[in-house]
Amino acid sequence: MITYAQQNSEEQTDAPPQAVDDHIAPAPRVSVQAFCETVETAAAVQSAGEDRRLAKAHLKIQMGGMAAAIEAYRSAPTPNVIILETEGRSDILAGLDQLATVCDAGTRVVVIGRVNDVTLYRELVRRGVSDYVIAPAHAIDVVRAVCNLFSAPEAKAVGRVVAVVGAKGGVGASTIAHNIAWAIARDLALDSVVADLDLAFGTAGLNYNQDPAQGIADAVFSPDRVDTAFVDRLLSKCTDHLSLLAAPATLDKVYDFGAEAFDAIFDTLRTTMPCIVLDVPHQWSGWTKRALIAADDILIVAAPDLANLRNAKNMFDLLKASRPNDRAPLYCLNQVGVPKRPEIAAGEFAKAIESPPIAAIPFDPQIFGSAANNGQMIAEISANHRAVEMFLQMAQRLTGRGETKKPRGSFLSPLLEKLRSK
Question: Is pTM, for the whole model, over 0.90?
Fold first, then answer.
């Protein structure tokens, strides 16, 4: 993807761009070396290197621009990606011609320049430049430029990861996650998988009325075997568009993991599923923090009490600070309106977190209890329940899809309409 056309159509400003809902696939393990002319660009590249999508890339930054790059590669191999900042038009073309004499085949070049001209852009493309970013470059511009080099237009889209976590235990975060995934699959017609990460006590198998012989534990305890075929065998089919990577929910093992224990599983799921919903247990460890920060979107589920407010704010602030180039986490209130229970109003949550909840799901023990005991979703128990519409709205927000799947009319529809009119 070339960013020139996009940037040329928008007025350039010095203010950093706001986080937008464009899905940028993470970069693989590649080496990236940047040669900057200005400290501002160097700072932007440094900030980009701290972004979650470049977590696997090895980034090195040097000053000196084009001249420094040419000198450096006279006696050293070139990396996977070179980022070059240059000041003038003539410097770019002449410098690239010299760089080509010392550049290894397969190395991709991203140029950051201040000349906004389509003729120059065509000359750069003719010389093999992969991308041209117009200065001043911000961190998200660098992230997008590098990541898009490894996300070819003809390649299958990398899956979007949505992480759902409770601000406190027992707030119903798993129920919310499973119903949102159901809405994504049924109403948005998007192939999805639910990964139940609570290996000891996970409820996804119960909620979807599934009892698979294998699940996520088989993958996390055999990281060397994890590939597309292996993970496909572990998936349990719930509906046409929804699959489950179930937790064993047994206590015969102790589930202590390192921070990177689930990386291979998530990476593999991204290559095969458009949407991955992570049911993250309420605990704070290296791998849960890593899973949340690495997700494309985050939903925090909280009950309307003081402990939930404190925890939700702490999680919201940390995740927002850890993901400066992403949309801020979202949160919803659950179990709202318990009789005779004092509650903190949604407005107080919004004031403390500085963001309103995207939904306030009413307390309805009859419907939610029946769904849980029957292994069904709320939409299956009561299709017109107001929580069903909330789950759909949250599914749309979290996936960036605003339109629902339109029901297919049968060939009898016109006749039925005439009969109704009579």
Answer: no
Q: Could you tell me which of 215, 208, 199, 218 has the C-alpha nearest to residue 288?
A: 199
Contacts for 365 with CB less than 8 Å, ≥ 6 apart = none
What does DSSP say about strands 58-63 and 31-36: parallel, antiparallel, or unpaired? parallel
Instruction: Please identify which residue in the block is written with the tokens 């001209």.
Output: 117
User: What b/e sequence results for 127-143 when a residue is b if at least 16 CB atoms lie within 10 Å of its CB, and e otherwise?
Assistant: eebbbbbbbbbbbbbbb
pLDDT of 308 strictly over 80? yes
In 285-397 the beta strands, taken as DSSP E runs, fall at 297-302, 330-336, 360-362
Token pair in block for residue 412: 């009898």
Q: What is the identity of the amino acid at 361?
A: I
Instruction: Provide the CB-side half-sphere exposure for 216 (13 A, CA).
Output: 32
- Residue 2, pLDDT score: 38
- Residue that is written with structure tokens 């979703």 in the block: 377
Give CA angle at 7 (28, 396), nearest 5°.
65
Beta strand ranges found along 326-408 (DSSP E): 330-336, 360-362
Task: Return d(Cα 309, Cα 353) in angstroms, integer.
Answer: 8
How many whole angstroms from its chain centre is CA 34?
26
What confidence tens digit (pLDDT) does each residue in 358-416 have?
Answer: 999 999 999 999 999 999 999 999 999 999 999 999 999 998 876 444 444 444 444 44
Would you tell me how many other CB atoms lie within 10 Å of the CB of residue 77? Answer: 10
C-alpha 274/C-alpha 295 separation (Å) is 13
Q: State the number of CA atoms in the 13 A half-sphere of 159 facing the CB.
A: 23
Task: Classify burial at 332, counting beta carbons within 10 Å of its beta carbon; exposed 0-12, middle 13-18, buried 19 or more.
Answer: buried
Between strands 360-362 and 330-336, the pairing is parallel
Beta bridge partners of 275: 160, 192
Cα 290 from chain centre: 12
User: Which segments of 189-241 are extended strands (E)?
Assistant: 192-196, 236-237
Phi-psi region of 194 (alpha: psi -120 to 50; beta: other; left: phi over 0): beta
Structure tokens at 363: 């307390």
Secondary structure E strands in 303-418? 330-336, 360-362
Rounded alpha-carbon distances, angstroms, from residue 110 to 56, 62, 73, 83, 142: 19, 15, 16, 5, 9
